[in-house]
Specification:
The protein has a domain of about 120 residues. Helices cover about 80% and strands about 0% of the residues. The protein contains 8 helices and no strands.
Length: about 180
């Protein structure tokens, strides 16, 4: 295990994030629609997300037990920092989608680490969410235009945005209930 966080805490954080996203979409649908339409090509946000992924990956390389690869630790950390810096500097096309995808891939491990030692049956929901994040992260980091076409464009319309907002609120409420020990 890399992360030592409780399943309840992870469920609460995931529930709060879902609740926040759903609430924002319901309270300010026009702003959220504009944001979703601009998100794939938002260079500044892309650099921030790629920077976050770079720091997270380099920190993991620096602090994780690498076993027989521990001798290469400094090279791996340096490689993460160099590749991340080059990505921030040179990757202009869909950098925000790729940065979000990288963060989804890294965050999925937090969910899986929290769920691993637990015997609560509700952990399956967090494990399923983690694998959805992994699938989305792999798909959208390699094909970011699909994120624009399949996620951002539909959410730029009022009907799909409202449906997604209510669904996100429902999922958030479920994770909050689970995190509080109700499931």
């Amino acid at each position: 295990m890399i992360y030592h966080v409780s399943l309840g805490l992870v469920a609460l954080v995931v529930g709060l994030l879902h609740g926040l996203a759903g609430s924002l979409a319901l309270l300010w649908p026009n702003r959220v629609q504009r944001f979703m339409q601009r998100f794939p090509r938002n260079l500044a946000l892309g650099r921030i997300l790629l920077g976050g992924g770079t720091v997270w990956a380099a920190t993991l390389c620096a602090t994780t037990d690498l076993g027989e690869y521990s001798a290469f630790r400094s090279g791996l950390v340096l490689g993460c920092l160099i590749l991340g810096t080059l990505s921030i500097w040179l990757l202009d096309d869909f950098s925000s989608v790729r940065g979000l995808s990288i963060l989804l891939l890294l965050a999925a491990d937090v969910l899986l680490d929290a769920a691993f030692p637990s015997d609560r049956p509700g952990k399956i929901a967090l494990v399923l969410l983690a694998y959805l994040w992994v699938a989305a992260g792999i798909l959208f980091v390699s094909l970011p235009h699909l994120f624009r076409d399949r996620v951002c464009e539909p959410l730029g319309l009022p009907g799909p945005l409202r449906t997604a907002a209510w669904g996100t609120l429902a999922v958030g409420a479920g994770f909050l209930a689970f995190g509080l020990g109700l499931g």
